[in-house]
Structure prediction request, 190 residues.
Amino acid sequence: MLNIVIFGAPGSGKGTQSELIIKEYGLDHISTGDVLRAEIKAQTELGKIADGYISKGQLVPDELIIDMLAKVLDSKADSKGVIFDGFPRTIPQAKALKKMLNERGTDVSVMLNLEVEEAELIQRLLKRGEISGRSDDNLETIQSRLEVYHNQTSPLKEYYITENKHTAVHGMGTVEEIFGRVCDAINCVK
Ligand code: AMP
Prediction:
């Protein structure tokens, strides 16, 4: 299986690049943010809990996310490979992902780290907020999300360097230019 962790700060283009990767490589896509937003819409117990964290720009607790991911992963058992978008966001989540994939006889193939300057991230997220209707795409919540990213999520870079899975991708430029770099990185591990 070709399992890709697409990584980067909020606004780094993970969702956009995931859509293009799916078309090019025929992979399945798991976005924990999308799954949580669907749970909120369906007003499930998990959705109600998650809503409180998401609207403040904080992370949903690891246990809830890991349980949720395990269920989604089981529904993709026959897949050629999966893009993990927005997961893992903490070291415990990364360790849980490795364990879950190893138990299924596979592993993370590569972690693609989309590197984008902070001012550009804020501009992209504010622009998206004008059309997305997302409760967390406003300046105050964007700032919390970026702080959470720096404190809790960015240490995953070191984790994946140690695992020998980290590939930096320059995330500035047009969507097509960035996708060209993403494909080069994927073709190196395929
Ligand atoms: P995203 O759509 O990936 O930007 O995620 C939106 C929000 O959902 C985040 O700001 C978190 O509140 C929550 N979320 C998504 N994925 C995770 C995760 N792996 N761990 C914890 N919280 C998450």
